[in-house]
Amino acid sequence: MMLIRDQAGRTAKLALYSGIAWLFVAAGSGLAAVLAAAGIVPAPVADLQPVFLNAFLFGWIAMGGTALGLFIIQRTHGVPLHNESLGQFSVWIWNIANAGGLGALMMGMGSAGPFRGYIWPLQLLWLAGLLLLLFNVARTVNRVPEPMFASTSYFLAALAWGGAVYFAGNGLWLPGGFGVNPLAALFQGMYAQSVVWLWAVPLGAGAALYAAAAASGRPLYSRQLANVGLWGLALHAATGVQRLWGAAVPEWVQATSVGAGALTVVATLALFINVTRTVGEGPQAGAVYATPSGRALRFGTWLLAVTGVLAALQPLSLFQPYIQGTQWSVAPHLTALLGATLLMFAGLYELLPMLRQPKDRPDELLYDLKVAGRHVKLSCWGAGLMTAGLWAGGTLQVLARSSFGAGANLAGAAAPALLLQAAGLALLLAGQLFFVGIVAKAAAVRGRVELPVVVTDPSGE
Question: Which of 281, 399, 404, 452 lies most in the core, judged by the most C-beta atoms within 10 Å?
Answer without folding.
Answer: 452
